[in-house]
Amino acid sequence: MRILRFDLQRPELEYYFHELYQAFDPGVKNILSGNADGVLLQKTEEDTVTLQLNWYDEKKLTRTYQFMKNDDPLDNSVYKGFFYDFLCEYFDKKLEWGTLTGIKPVKMVFKYLNKGWSQSAIRERFSKYYRVSYDRIDLMLSIANRQADFIVPTQKKGLNKSISIYVGIPLCPSKCDYCSFVSTIVDKNADNLTKYFTHLLAEIQRTGEVVKAQGFRIDTLYIGGGTPTVLNARQLDQLMTALENAFDLSQLREYTLEAGRAETINREKLAAAKAHGVERVCLNPQSMNQQTLINVKRPWEAGLIEKQVALIKSFKFKTLNMDLIVGLGDETADDFRRSLEMVIALEPENITIHNLSIKKGSRIKDQMGIVVKEGYGEAFYQAVKQRLNLENYQPYYLYRLKYTQDNSENIGYAKPGHEGIYNILMMSECQATIGIGAGATGNLYYEETDEVQKVFTVKDVKTYNERFEEIVTKKIKAYQIYFNHKNNKF
Q: What class of enzyme is it (predicted)?
């Protein structure tokens, strides 16, 4: 791993410079002192800033930039813009997302729209200030326009007592090499699953008592993982019955069940989901190529995905989502395109395209470090979008992660009428979400300040089981305070 020392006159720029540098040159470690393979210098004098990058075994570049009349010399974003221009020249390339490194760029669009900005003003802001390409600006605006109908306007006025719920089941039959989630492998006798399930039902009941007492109803409900379908059919039925008893689901707009691993699905489990009103099922092959899945230690069986899709469709769920990951297991662009064509042929209503992100907690990260190989290029990503568009799949939500192929984005595509409402609300952060279970984060939205307060839960099942009473009591107290605050607004 190469080491780059940051010699910054303004040390507070370290985070911003690190994030942006990683987008151009992933895998480099930065330090603020000590021996290094190269040095990045930043120095500000009156109305100019000088940047210098000197890798001792490579080229050296020095440039001086002048603050404009309206620039604030203490604004970190101004420095980030200069640094972006500097890196573009040094590496002789531009990034489609410019200086943006955040997860939720569409939320920024809504921020400007809510301030009354015109689309032309928003375009200019993203183009000149953040250096975003016209293509990605158009993508953000089109997604924002599509999401607007699903974001309840009265929530902005504090008049809507709807919230969403995420139920986390962070257990899997095995762990794939690329996975960075803190998920637990179900032990031989499923003892860890049984103990976790008992505690999960208890948390559902206790949380429901608070939510119902305060008069809140559930807008969307998402059961995610891990792999929720490691539960057997009886447990799934118990779980969904507990949710129905605990919460007001009478005005539910969407009910999603992740059934990500094909080998965990059977007719009895799907029948239980259907009986309880699940409308959206997620089956996530990640790749349709045998060797790719073998490489990342994800189970593969010839024809299983096709068989399970047919089974899911036989229950006539409203929406089937299928996920694919770009850059998985050393796949080529042609490998990915073959997977995409096979998934399109299965006719799911949603297709979500993720870009491989090498993150802490995955075996790939442990083995290789943060290494992002050269991606497939912008032409590849445009071809994927055009191919999906031909089949009437339109982008309806996106988010971004660090250390991805080509600094790209993750996009959910949907046929009209099949947009994932929970995904939209999560990315726009305009509604409170209650997180139940290990690793399930609550997001408490305060519309008066447009801020979100996080309610974290320990991620691993063992700690959740051992400290259950302490953890759940703390979470419920946070939710109680939030509901009291909301009710005082009515």
A: oxidoreductase
168: alpha, beta or left? (left if phi > 0; alpha if psi -120 to 50) = beta
Mean pLDDT, residues 408-428 taken together: 96
- Strand segments (E) across 170-299: 171-172, 184-185, 217-225, 254-258, 280-282
The number of beta carbons lying within 10 Å of the beta carbon of residue 310 is: 10
Mean pLDDT of 283-308: 93
Lowest mean pLDDT among 138-142, 217-221, 303-307, 365-369: 365-369
Q: Is the pLDDT of residue 471 over 70?
A: yes
CATH class in words for 153-482: alpha beta
SS3 317: coil
Q: How far apart are CA 82 and CA 121, in angstroms?
A: 22
Give CA separation, 128 vs 17, 99, 125, 295, 372, in Å: 19, 11, 6, 43, 28
- CATH number corresponding to 3-91: 3.30.160
What is the 8-class DSSP label of residue 34? S
> 65: pLDDT confidence band, cut at 50, 70 and 90?
very high
pLDDT at 460 over 50: yes
According to the model, what pLDDT value does residue 181 have? Answer: 61
What was the pLDDT predicted at 219? 96
Q: Interior CA angle at 111 toward 115 and 319, to 5°?
A: 130
DSSP letter string, 87-116: HHHHHT---TTTT---S-HHHHHHHHHHTT
Amino acid letter, residue 225: G
The region of weakest confidence among 177-181, 330-334, 359-363 is: 359-363
Nearest one of 475, 369, 58, 434 to 222, comparing CA atoms = 434
First to last CA, the chain: 56
Tokens coding 422: 């929970």
Q: What is the mean pLDDT of the chain?
A: 91
Distance CA 96, CA 441 (A): 30
Residues 6+ apart with CB under 8 A from 437: 167, 168, 169, 170, 196, 200, 203, 457, 464
Alpha-carbon torsion (308, 314, 317, 322), positive or negative? positive
Encoded tokens for 158: 């504090």
Tokens of 103: 């997860």
Under a CB-based contact definition with an 8 Å cutoff, are residues 173 and 263 in contact?
A: yes
323 near 354, Cβ under 8 Å?
yes
- HSE, CB side, 13 Å, CA atoms: give it for residue 92: 1
